[in-house]
Design a protein that fits this description.
The chain is an all-alpha fold and 350 residues long. It contains 12 helices and 4 strands, in the order ββααααααββαααααα. Strand 1 and strand 2 form a beta hairpin. It starts with a strand and ends with a helix.
């Protein structure tokens, strides 16, 4: 509400533009149910790992941010912990019918599908298949993998068609408003989106560069590394925690794809940008904590490689923080950014 010339002008839109259209309500509810169920499954595995481990609950909580304090025999790893929280948040947003949940849900579904495909490739190995029968937890592990596949397929099936057009002819995918509202929330988002795109793309290229550097300088078997990206049997053990090869490849891929989409000013990637930036920020904070408690900061600049590694970590911390801030910026207030346009319209008509 805005007071003008002694009167009151209501500049609020008739409908909340941040809320999904009524015809997509079922898709959002199905997504909330699926992601909530899978998050609950991961939480159950986390509790089991704490109960069966040598450390206490406090050791686990400390290990969430300090890799050196994390018990070695945890069932899940930091990627799974962070995405468990992400699944719960996305499920809550989907339950509230918030449109920002769509791209975040699609991102997590694609990652779940990639994990499932990798596990499926591993099942072609007879020795790996036998472990599911011989391991006491093999059945539960396989059921968790199967649930992940079902969740991924359901979320993709219901959310991919749930596209919408914003009022006034603005496409929810691009955020373009045919040149109207220059300097308004839509224009602000396009600028912010491109900044996020640059930050994500540079981070993806930096991480790709480090991956290639490690392959070339550590004597690592390149074929085995690439196989570890797509084949779950490479490690030779049943493990719900993602391998380093897979997480590196997935991170580079997501950073580059989202970076390109954000550079194009697509509004519908906002949720995906926010979720993945938050996950990357958490993992970077863990790295910074580890560098601090081990005293590695004192020797980071002794070599060129160490200095570059420290610079990459500092950039990741700043870039991911910036993306989180920009993706939750003023263009996405309680009125979905339309309030500012309505205010200018009211003032212009005075």
């Amino acid at each position: 509400m805005v007071m003008q010339d002694g009167g009151t002008v209501d500049v609020r839109p008739g409908a909340d533009p941040g809320r999904a259209a009524a015809e997509h309500s079922g898709a959002y509810l199905a997504t909330a149910l699926c992601l909530g169920l899978y998050a609950g499954t991961l939480l159950a595995w986390t509790v089991y790992g704490i109960a069966q481990g040598d450390g206490s609950t406090w050791d686990f909580l400390e290990g969430l941010f300090n890799p050196g304090a994390s018990p070695a025999n945890q069932v899940l790893g930091p990627y799974e912990w962070s995405f468990t929280v992400a699944f719960l948040v996305i499920a809550g947003l989907a339950l509230a019918q918030r449109r920002v949940a769509r791209s975040a849900a699609l991102l997590t579904a694609c990652l779940l599908l990639a994990v499932s495909v990798r596990e499926g490739v591993g099942l072609f190995d007879a020795a790996y298949r036998a472990q599911y029968s011989n391991d006491p937890l093999g059945g539960w592990t396989l059921a968790t993998r199967g649930l992940g596949l079902v969740v991924a397929l359901v979320v993709l099936a219901v959310m991919l068609p749930a596209t919408e057009r914003r009022p006034g002819g603005r496409d929810s995918r691009t955020g373009h408003d045919d040149g109207r509202g220059a300097g308004g929330p839509e224009s602000w988002w396009r600028r912010s989106s491109r900044i996020c795109g640059v930050l994500f793309t540079l981070m993806g290229l930096a991480r790709l560069g480090w991956a290639v550097h490690d392959l070339m300088t550590t004597g690592m078997d390149k074929g085995n590394y690439l196989r570890g990206v797509v084949d779950g049997s490479v490690l030779g053990t049943l493990d719900l925690a993602a391998s380093a090869e897979f997480t590196t490849a997935a991170s580079v891929t997501v950073l580059l794809i989202l970076g390109v989409l954000a550079l194009r000013g697509r509004r519908d990637v906002r949720g995906a940008l926010l979720v993945f930036a938050a996950v990357e920020l958490y993992l970077t904070v863990r790295t910074v904590v580890w560098l601090t408690v081990t005293g590695s900061f004192n020797h980071s600049f002794d070599t060129t490689e160490g200095a570059l590694s420290m610079a990459t970590t500092a950039y990741a911390l700043a870039a991911m923080t910036s993306v989180v801030v920009l993706a939750t910026g003023r263009g996405f207030g309680p009125y979905g950014g339309v309030r500012a346009e309505g205010l200018r319209t009211a003032r212009g008509g005075a």
